[in-house]
Amino acid sequence: MTNIYNFSAGPAVLPKEVLAQAAAEMLDWHGSGMSVMEMSHRGPEFISIYRQAEADLRELLAVPDNYKILFMQGGGLSQNAVIPMNLLGREGATIDFIQTGSWSSKSIKEAARYANVNVAASAKDNGYRFVPPQSAWNLTPGAAYLHLCTNETIDGVEIGYVPDAHQHTTIVADMSSHILSRPVDVSKYGLIFGGAQKNIGPAGVTVVIVREDLIGKALPYCPSAFDFKNVADNESMYNTPPTYGIYIAGLVFQWLKRQGGVAEMERRNIEKAKLLYAALDADDFYQNRVQPEYRSRMNVPFYLRDESKNEAFLAGAKARGLLQLKGHKSVGGMRASIYNAMPLEGVQALVDYLNEFAGR
User: Fold this and answer.
1) Which residues have CB under 8 Å from 259's CB, separation 6+?
2) Which one from 174, 227, 255, 272 is the annotated catalytic residue?
């Protein structure tokens, strides 16, 4: 098949230009005689790759000077433990959570091993179809921080605004599945983190953007390799970082800049999301259960009215080169992830198939 469109939620589609460049540089990076996979992480070649990637990400997100950018291992899931160990400041402190889907629920469960957890608001009883209004949030005065998952990859719920929090309360945001898809005011957050395998690069890299005054407060039992101070002081090389993943991420950052940056990505993502949701809403054969104002631009779960047709739908999609549309096992149905690297043509191909299948 010549036209393949990969709708996987992650690891996810990468720009073809990036894959082609990585292939061309696989055996010999810029005349060094080495593949990036073979380089010492402390050698001048890889140091130049790392510093360019860090600078490009800082430019793309307009990261203020008083924030550190860390490239870590363990995925976004590990940060649910690493962040409490670094930001709690003391035993017995409280973390506030807004529960908007599967990933914020995982964060709550993990954080409870290290801190008092207050679920300040939850949409669980309503099937994660919306974000609870801020007027209903029961925030804790003096909480160590407020944790949000600003885009729920599984449930398709997105928080498109910066919430209010108590004065002096730090906001921590898991942006794994929509980072770099829209502009964000980094200064409104104490810490932003995300696994790379959706909009940044391959699995294995976790990006952490953290305000400098929050660094250096790790609890005594925090592993040294996960202590933000050690990672920051050593330019993410306290231990051997995921070098090839950082290299690919750097190529993605350069690709984003050539496309026009994050603002242009947002324009494209709005266009793609409108096209797909319009098709789903136009025929009652399909159903998206998220309230429209909270629908994710990146992850679009949907259900067939007649779920006995699920396997036929997936088989037909695969035959047309539309891959990885099966929904997460915890919720079933279908899911189309339309990250930055998914072209408008891919979404149009999916819409054409949706219309054809429903009509048939």
Assistant:
1) 265
2) 174
Task: Please pick, among 56, 103, 155, 227, the residue that the annotation labels catalytic.
Answer: 103
Tell me which residue of 125, 134, 91 sits closest to 105, measured CA to CA.
125
Any catalytic annotation for residue 257?
Answer: no
Sign for the pseudo-dihedral over CA of 346, 11, 70, 296: positive
pLDDT digit string, tens, across residues 148-181: 999 999 999 999 998 877 666 899 999 999 999 9
CB atoms near residue 273 (< 10 Å): 19
Q: Which helix (H) or strand (E) holds 191?
A: strand 191-195
The question of whether 103 is a catalytic residue gets the answer: yes
Please give the DSSP secondary-structure letter assigned to residue 298: S
Active site (annotated) includes residue 29? no
Cα–Cα distances (Å) from 265 to 36, 126, 162, in that order, read: 28, 31, 19
pLDDT at site 166: 67
166/214 Cα distance (integer angstroms): 17
CA distance from start to end of the chain: 23
The letter for the amino acid at 312 is A
The two tokens of residue 220 are: 């005594």
CB environment 109-118: b (16+ within 10 A), e (fewer):
ebbeebbebb
pTM over 0.85: yes
Looking at residue 149, what DSSP letter applies? Answer: E
Domains and CATH numbers, the chain: 17-258 (3.40.640.10), 261-359 (3.90.1150.10)
* Cβ atoms within 10 Å, residue 89: 12
